Amino acid sequence: MKPELLAPAGDLERLKFALLYGADAVYLGGQLFGLRANAINFTLEQLKEGVEFAHSLNKKVYVTVNIVLHNKEIKFLIDYLKQLDEIKVDAIIVSDLTVLDLAKKHTNLEVHISTQQSTLNYEAVEYLKDLGVTRVVLGREVTKEDIEIIKKVGLEVEIFIHGAMCASYSGRCVLSNYLTNRDANRGGCSQICRWDFDLLDENKNIIKGEKNFTFCSKDLSLLKHINEICDMGVTSLKIEGRMRSIYYIATVVNIYRKAIDDYYNKKYVYNSNYENILSRVANRDSIVQFFDSNYGANCSYYNDRIEVSNQDFLGVVLDYNKDTKIATIEQRNYFKKGDIVEFFGPDKINTYEVNEIYDEDNNLIEIVRHPKQIVYLKTNFELNKNDLMRIKVDK
Amino acid sequence: MKTLIMISNLNQVNLKCDGVIIGIRGLSVNMPAYFELEDLKNIDKEVFVCLNKNMHNSDIDYLKEILIKLNDYNIKGVIFYDLSIPNLTKKLNLNYDLVWSQEHMTTNYNTINFWYDKNIKYTWVSNDITLREMKEIKENTNAKLMVTLFGYLPMFVSRRHLVKNYLDTFNLKDDSKINYMEKEGHIYPLVDNNETIVYTDFILNGLKEKLLLNYDYIVLNSFLIDDDKFSKVLDIFNNVNSDNVDELDSELNSLFNNLGKGFFYNETVYKVK
What we know:
The structure holds two protein chains of two kinds. Chain A is globular and about 65 Å long. Helices cover 27% and strands 24% of the residues of chain A. Chain A starts with a strand and ends with a strand. Chain A has helices at residues 12-20, 44-56, 74-87, 97-106, 122-130, 144-151, 175-180, 226-232, 246-264, 272-281; strands spanning 4-8, 25-29, 60-65, 91-94, 111-113, 135-137, 156-163, 196-200, 206-207, 213-214, 219-221, 236-239, 286-287, 313-321, 326-331, 335-336, 340-344, 349-353, 357-358, 364-365, 367-368, 374-378, 388-391. Chain B has helices spanning 60-70, 84-92, 109-117, 131-139, 162-169, 207-210, 227-239, 245-255; strands spanning 2-6, 19-24, 34-35, 46-51, 77-80, 97-100, 122-125, 144-158, 179-183, 186-192, 196-205, 217-221, 259-260. Helix content of chain B is 27%, strand content 27%. Chain B is α/β, with parallel strands linked by helices. Chain B has one domain: TIM Barrel (Alpha-Beta Barrel). Chain B is globular, with a radius of gyration of 19 Å. The relative contact order of chain B is 0.15. Chain B has eight helices and 13 strands. In chain B, helix 1 crosses helix 2 (84-92) and helix 7 runs antiparallel to helix 8. Chains A and B meet through helix 4, helix 5, helix 6, helix 7 and strand 8 of A and helix 2, helix 3, helix 4, strand 8 and helix 5 of B.
């Protein structure tokens, strides 16, 4: 069976982009009990709208209820779970097992176990299966062999295929708590693992390399192994990044959608252009990490906290007039007359040389430099609302 | 209230305490030292065996072997993090108690009661919560509770060899058994052994709090504390009462210059906007 492609949705706009660009399901946080407390997150009304939108496309919405609970929160939990049930979310993702227990007692919600539990072995998965869990999101430290063994338990298995990594076992890091008073396991992680430190020996003398010491890890990308993963019968393939932009979400989802579909259409060959596009959309290096059991020094990222964001993302198509062939574009990064760009949507890519640009007052202009500036371009191919414009990525 | 100590060496078994927490090589993390099963013989105190690492498939056979062997030892219980352990002990019908100890998740009484209903009668309560929350837990559960009141606290466990990775990347050499990492004058102990573990820059001092908590067990961690000092610490905790607490607290402060209160009186935040 084709695996589910599962994308992050930091808000309603990103939910729509993720689903339109090829995700089979999205995961998101409500305004309570989620591990991205500082993302925009969804009100119940927005959540309802998101669920209705997803279900209209025959797709799914999973809600994170995965913080580690403190005493005072328990009394609010049952009502919240009942509300999620009424909205008809497709599952909740939990780490604290009291949430599983209350969901079973008070709702019909399906429950997935969060990666925060760092589930890495078949005995633990068997235990969770007996508790009535329907899916387990495996810890990021699993290897290909681990996944194959765990699959035999017969529970739905979800793995991360793309995005940022925790340096620690998920759930076992409270650096953020102690160094910044922000609670890592309750949505406040301040990413201390990306800070630079001085490394000292046992006599407290500095050990100094060319770059500063850090726990920072490269990001994960399993694009290279997508054919093997499809063969393994993993239920769901998860992309990390609820705080990421619509451009990131649309691009990453779209590339994995194509790679998975290529595989099932028996057209799969490793496509370096896909990799190239993925690498340009990120601001950090990505590698395979634990999947191939090779998680040595090459996984660490010594970059002195320099993360370069490119300006590939040029604009969003707000509208396209089929009669006049005029596209209304909202600018996201500088572009100008003569630039070679691409418009891409869920199913198509068109290359385009920027020629005549008109501003909102119908003046012919040569440079689009203002954030969210509205401009008009004439194209000889049809565009759709929510198509995206980027610089042309060389193969 | 009984006192358990996390031992750095087998001599510490003879210290004046009610019991010991012992790590087993290959199956434990965040322990001052790791021992073999044979080392448990002849300990005539309560013994809790701490098998608290994140278990991978490759660990399961050895874990199973140790769990079965432990059934023939006179131990009080097995402390666990990974859910493979309650699964295996149930399937193998082993007769010692289990202690739920998912160290940063043991933060509320509801989940403690969830485990209690699963016949897991002990919880090692997290140090990431306030003293008030610790008291509320006691008031709302029948589980037997333990809490760490002295020692460096583990903050981070990684599968990765983060010190070795750095040394390898930049062709550096260092044979330290323990490292440290420093930021803005704060120095954090760092151990890269089977996993990479980071500890707090302070030693938790819960001497006064011992008198305010009516827990079943308090835990004192000997990690990075020399034997003489740890022995004095144990005496102080054993002898503290409401009349001498200030005097003994001063004595404790004279032994160490980096004692701290952790989150006893300081609640973490998670929403910053």
